[in-house]
What we know:
The protein has two domains: about 1-115, Sandwich (Immunoglobulin-like); about 265-575 and about 585-920, Beta Barrel (Maltoporin, Chain A), CATH 2.40.170. It is globular. It is built from seven helices and 52 strands. It is mainly β. This is Outer membrane beta-barrel protein. Its main location: membrane. It comes from Fontibacter flavus. It holds the Pfam family CarbopepD_reg_2.
Amino acid sequence: MLKIFLVVLIMFLTSVQVSAQTQRWLVSGTVMDKEGKALSSATITLLDPKDSTLVTFGVSNPSGYFEIKNLREDDLLLQISFVGFSPYSKPIKKPTAINLLELGEILLEEKTADLDEFTVEAVAPVTIKKDTVEFNADSFKTLPNANVEDLLKRLPGVEIDSDGNIKAQGETVRRIMVDGKEFFGNDPKLATKNLLAEAIDKVQVYDRKSDQAQFTGIDDGQREKTINLQLKDSHKKGYFGNLQGGYGTDNRYGIRGNINKFTDKQQLSFLGMSNNTNEQGFSIEDYINFQGGIQGFGGGGGMVRITVGGPGGGQSPIPLNNGQRVNGIMNSHAFGTNLNRDFNKNTQMRSSYFFNLIDHQISQNTDRLNFFPNGDFIFNENSRQDNMNANHRLNLIIDHKIDSLNSFRSTSNGQFTQTDRVSNSITSNTDLEGNLLNRGERTNITTGDSYQANSEFLYRHRFGKAGRTISANFNFGYNLSDFEGSLYAENEFFGNNSSTEIIRQQNSQNNSALNYGTNISYTEPLGGRKYLELVYNLRQNHNKVDRQVFDWEGETMVFNQALSNRFNSLYTFHRPGANISYNGGKYNLVAGVALQATSLKGELLLLDEIVNNSFENVLPSMRVNYSFSNTKNLMFNYQTSVTEPSIEQLQPVINNADPLNIYVGNPELKPAYVHSWRLNYNSFDMGRFVNLFANAFVNYTENAMVNSQRIDDRQVRTITPVNVKNNLMASGNLNFGFPIKPLNSRFNIGPSLMYNQGVNLINDVEDIIKINNLGGNIRYDYNWKEFVNVGLSANFSRQSTSYDFNPQQNQLFFNQNFNAELGINFLQHYTLAGNFNYLVYKSRTTDFNESIPILNISFSRFVMKNRAGEIKLSGQNLLNQNVGVSQRADVNFIEQTVTNNLGRIVMLSLTYKLNSRLNPMNNLTRPGGGGMRMMRMIN
Length: 939
């Protein structure tokens, strides 16, 4: 597969060389105002003079100079636009003697107040407005019925991975706005996967300053990469959205839809979906939290995972057509509504409600090779889980500007979750000769409810002196959970003292948590662009846990005090601090220090023990941000933090959710002190659409908390958190992207590396473990207007793990992922799309060698007036690969996991685009980009 991929790349590169030899010409010039000042980032657009369609475009550099190469046309229309200046237009011709047309200095005139006439101008594909890069959506064509995610994939400098995560200019996008308002809270995927691309007029990419910086006007250097979707006026005059339904083989079905009505003052959206094809109707983070929360509960939990610094390997469940990766078999149902309303210029409301219900069935086989100083053994587990989760989420934000000096903001959210989980597993441990050491079978059942409610109130005041402000934040939260569970386990131990152990238990656990606190910030200008900020933070958390475990003895339940637990705890947190900031135009510096005093008091009622710990730490920090230009930035950040042990880690109570892997807390555990260094460099050339993004990160932890393991002669593992001297993690990655304009193509190359060094304790023997991961990705994209798009990509990962106690047990494995995508739109009404994914897993330590080919193909026909309907025949996983595979290495083991998955699905579906019927203005909007737009210019 690798050879085929390299051959395809060579063919493309060869075609680039041949194309470069074709006779072409270029045009250059310098854009200036009448005073001779260079105009940086002016938009240069070249049009076909016959029909004013877009040929190509560029942007002037900081000196005002531009150069557009590889022109083939004999006649073109040059247009130059810059914010605040009248547009410039000039016909140009291909030079006859040489292949260079030099236009020299081009002077733009500032717009005058008496300009009041109709003008005709081309829509610039890209415009730079200070720190915002604005893309004209119609200039980046997508297929009919495409969503915003498909549009973003076509924008230079924007990347979307197979899970729908977005990066813009090398940074992760944390927030998607619609007309400047949040859409379904802070989950970007709900906007990108549900809004239609054709509804978008402009895509604005910018670095959003922190809320505190926006209020005080003092740049604290904190940034959050944000995308704002500006809707077309035509989609603010009626309803728009789409409905989709499909049915396929093995009774597989999928139904989804969204309806939106947006105006300047109100946004109203409804989302809904139901399917049994593993498509998610919610954020993947929510599902991960659901899984982790259930596994953390003792009565229904699984085996404790032990890590050095995060997962050391890679795993790739089968990727579905929608790009989301889910192993197992899942039924999903979801519904949501979002309402944003501006009551007036001083009062705004943001609200959303979301419900999802999932039923997820997972069958897994895990093989793990464990390394221990006194001998290795092989662990095998066959398990089946049936998880049901119903979740309700409600969010409400009220923003009120009292007057020009005072404002108030209220944020409230609530969540209610119902859970049922059944887990069955059969496990065994053998030595390297195949002799059985122990064998176990267990069933865990968990059912229960949980409630969460949080409120935050923020008051802000500006004084008469610029830069002098005070803000006070008050927060309140309450969590309540009530679970019941049962455990049945039958374990056999072999060897000299063979025995059989049967466990039958019932358990219940009630948790309640009340937390409240405040954060006060005062800023004072010191003159010379320097500012002082004084901050104070207070928080208190009250926790109560009542866990009761009963053993069945015949038909009688007997209270098990050793496994039961009742405790109350009070966590108090004080942190005063001060920051000095300096804004020097192109750069800003923030340096500060805080003193953190923490106390943790707990009462173990059943053991009649008191936990009383207090910690004091000095926390310095520094942030430097230097902007070479609007699109070139260097940032350095150093910060320190303290990771406190939880009451669960401190309490000496046994958790036997897995009787072969027992967990016991440690009351002597101390907090970990973390130093973090981060260096980021971002460069994006808007003229050539070349990007270079580099990141380096180092994390050094003193007094690191790790899980110590003790293995007895029956191979039962007891896990206890302890402190070790230090852990170290360092990583770096680079992304370089550039276009190949003659081929309408783009290349992206991204190498990465990671180094992890940690301390592990096994049977009180300390061992230093080092993990090295070298990987990267390469991607080629070809787009020809809205008719053809091709994508080729490859991801590689090589991981090695070394152990001090026995170098012969060092591990090495490889993960590879090759992907090819094809989309063809032909005869105006037909679309052919395909995706081929080839996953390869190899281990040099074991004989594990697995390859999985995945093929998805769909064929569409657009019907009805304005192509409002789409009939699609699709095939997912046509090669019928019904397993997902993962492999990873960690502190003292390497493991491979095979999970069940959906097999082949063939489905017929119908999509209906609502705005074609319900939006009366839709037919007045001319499709396509780069064409002429009639607009009234009034200054």
